[in-house]
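Supplementary Note 2. Why include the ligand at all?

Several targets in our set were suspected to adopt different conformations when bound, so apo predictions alone were not considered sufficient. For every target with a known small-molecule partner we therefore ran a joint prediction. The input for fe (ii) ion is given below.
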Amino acid sequence: MIFRQLFDQTSSTYTYLLASRHGGEALIIDPVLERVDRYVQLLKELDLRLVKAVDTHLHADHITGLDALRERTNCITVMGEQSKADVVSIRVRDGDRVDIEGVSLDVAYTPGHTDDSYSYILPDRVFTGDTLLIRGTGRTDFQNGDARAQYDSIFGRLMKLPDETLVYPAHDYKGDTVSTIAEERTFNPRLQVKSVDEYAELMANLNLPNPKMMDVAVPANMRIGLAQNIVADRGWALTADEVKRLLGQKDVALIDLREAQERHRDGVIPGSLHVAYPDVQENLQSDGLLRQLADAAGKQLVFYCAYGERSAMALQAAQAAGLTTARHLHGGLQAWKNAEGPLSS
Ligand SMILES: [Fe+2]
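The joint prediction is reproduced in token form.
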């Protein structure tokens, strides 16, 4: 596995780059806006294609690099379903998996530091965000933090991982880079408590100042969605009601861009075809399915995904490839559900 731990000195944030091979797909965890140039350069140097950018939670101490990376690489953005970020491409929940070629992360909901905190687990390591730090734990005094929930996340979830599991946190302020579950259980001063009450009391008496960046970072990190209005202004967006009227029409092909896991979980618009977002470019080539549907079969393509992010990006690619009748469902399946559009499993 290709694994890089990158550091942002200003916010003491660790960012992780994962891939299974040179020339393949990559995933990044907790990217920092000011470091995006460096990530893009490193991706190029390692011959990697960034396909997913994940934030473990909505950060208060730095501005996320999620939307800048999406603009630069067309990657998919991922956060938890509880996140207050306006639009992310995929919202995960406990028990999901986040997959790229050769790497599959287990998703564990570990609230407490915030109510949208997640940990991402590989067989030998865990990315704990700010839930569990090295010899510390993330503060629980703002952003719907909850010391009792954090106690459950740490003792009920993370401490149940094998002892030798490597712990990679989102921050370190002392220069430590990695720990293990066993090490933290024994030596983390915050974990030397006998009860949830004792932990809650300890966390209530930390009296920490607010992060310097908080007033800037939190609002910025809540507005990371791709401006679907840009696509709408060009007249390329369809409302859910407009798409409803296209259902069953022979000269229209609805294209679902989501992953199999999302389709299975949330259902599909009846009659739609499946082309996963990462395969769109390939399918726009002369012998690709999307090209064939549009050119040979004369169909109007209508893309959709979960929230309209991936479909807006796919639509721009299709338009750039000359498929001028292509459109997308503004707001994605969420808008479809709100409009009580039919779904099949
Ligand atoms: Fe945090």
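The radius of gyration is 21 Å. The chain has a mean pLDDT of 97. Comparable summaries for the other entries are listed in the accompanying table.
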